[in-house]
Amino acid sequence: MKPLLFLLAALCLGLPAVAQQKPNVILICADDLGYGDLSCYGATKIHTPNLDRLASTGLRLTNGHSTSATCTPSRYAMMTGQYPWRRKGTRILPGDAALIVPTDKKTLPGVFKQAGYQTAIVGKWHLGLGEKVEKDWNQDIKPGPNEVGFDYSFIFPATADRVPTVFLENHSVVALDAKDPIAVDYKNKVGNDPTGKEHPELLKMKSSPGQGHDNTIVNGIGRIGYMSGGKMARWADEELSYTFLARAQDFISRNRKTPFFLYLALTEPHVPRVPATMFKDKSGLGARGDAILQLDWVVGEVIKELEAQGIAKNTLVIFTSDNGPVLDDGYQDEAVSLLNGHTPAGPLRGGKYSALEGGTRMPFILNWPGKIKPGVSDALLSQVDLLRSLAGLLKQPLLKQEAGDSEDQMRAFLGTDKKGRSELVLQGGALSVTKDGWKYIPANKGAGYDALVGIETGNSEKAQLYNLVSDVAEKDNLAEKYPEKVKELEALLDKIKNK
Ligand code: NG6
Ligand code: CA
Fold first, then answer.
1. pLDDT tens-digit readout, 37-86
2. Is there a single domain that holds both residue 288 and residue 340?
3. Looking at the whole model, is its pTM more than 0.90?
4. 357 and 482 share a domain?
5. 32 lines ligand 1 (CB under 6 A)
6. Is 190 a domain residue?
7. Which domain holds residue 401?
8. From CA 383, how far away is CA 79, in angstroms rounded?
9. Which ipTM value was assigned to this complex?
């Protein structure tokens, strides 16, 4: 039909002349990926072509942050639009924790659902499941992701190094054999499975001294926490990524005709790093580098799926990570010895667990063909802003007190505003605040260096003030030189804390 005829026919039939399909949104979150881990962020020892392409055809943020330097709090903020430290119990959760995301408040997936989207999470959850710690893993477990706004969920409960090492689809454990029920305990050993502590000779990857990871052995790897049963349901680490990818592709193809929101929470390069055969020894940087290659590949496959379904143009892809990098986080996997001069945090100081920039300044890429002009932006942005920004994009109402720390920064996320936030609180061990290129970390008594993981924590008995514009590596503490600035930022931090 000629366009004019179609228009006339559409008008006569009362149909909208142009079918305006709402954009799909895919939020991909890596786990422990550092600011310097991708070649588009300056890495030279590793090449990440798929993410580089996403960045070169989209917007690459240089000052985009997670709220926190560990997983649970960062993801809590992404889901709720609230700083995690406002609420108790949002630190790194064990694998049997109860759900910490409120079921009666606005959430990121909830906003999409309200806008008529199909919503899904595929990947790492780590925000707790069920009402209590004590729960029966052999029954339906509620509440969880499906109760906070996801129509579909395919997750693992916590981290790859924590039991139970199983997938849950919606409310139940995948491939569970009723004759081999699962039991989980984080205090006492359950069942007869060997532990890493009792039987280190059974391990295919040694745990690092002093870092735990020596409880139940699953797939030759000692985990945090004890489990028994569920032998058929246990995952093979080598297949984690394929499994998540297949579920993501399936969700995308099923929903190619309806607007959808997919939160794809990938596990790389978190420990234990056990990439698929295809990536083994391919990076030359050991298992951590191989895991990054795998991550890059998965992202490439997701984009291919969008293209194959003909919906790439109408899809906003957001890529980021939940916290900064760590090399030795519990296993002796040669991440340190084979580093080969790679700098996971790029020019930044600190890493995972740290109040320094390496803890929270993240790779952060937004790609929306035709809508986002390719470029780089130094705007100050946080993952906590995604909720209100995307709600604005979807024209969904959000009261001021809902998602109270989330700002509508959609223009900055699309690259048309280059400033972004005026201030942001960051959570390492200590809370710090950043404003107009300055960063203030209050004096505190915590140790300055975490020897187990080999990371500077950013703690110091002296107040710290850095000028991030001229000194992104936070080398030059200017607190004594600019006491007024320190006072101003101290008051600002207090004000935000007490909001
Ligand atoms: C820590 C674990 C670390 C990792 C982290 C969670 C120890 C000594 N270390 O407690 O291995 O699992 O928790 O990482 O147990 S996160 O990215 O999910 O926050
Ligand atoms: Ca993490």
1. 999 999 999 999 999 999 999 999 999 999 999 999 999 999 999 999 99
2. yes
3. yes
4. no
5. yes
6. no
7. 24-182+229-414
8. 9
9. 0.97
